[in-house]
Task: structure prediction
Amino acid sequence: MEELELKSEPLQPRWYSTDESESLRQGANRWRNGVRSHIWRPATDVYETGDTIVVRVEIAGMREEDFSISLTGSQLTVRGNRPDIQERRAYYQMEIFFGEFTTEVELPGPVDSDQVTAEYIAGFLRLVFLKDQPNKIHVTE
Result:
């Protein structure tokens, strides 16, 4: 049996000025159509209950009017822009994303687009879609 020796450096605090923080956000960048984008994606859950489909987006620090929500067919898109704090600071750790975000989800089934409720409470945007019930056609003899 071969032994592997793992080497690691201890964690050391690193100071980053506000000006340097933009370059640190590069890890949050996404590739879209071959072009690098600064748009980030918040954590999103999609689940269903008996007669609804629920989409929950974790996005603290926003106001209800800061969201743009669209539904095209079964494709739901939630967009917004979480403003950064405008103060000079030095980071020890940087994990909270600011700026433009988007999340796109494919709803698992047809929904009634006229029966949608949206609420933003305690940092979560919650969209509830009523499942679209198929029309029943009765055949007579």
Summary: The first strand starts at residue 30 and ends at 32. The chain has one domain: 18-131. The mean pLDDT is 79.
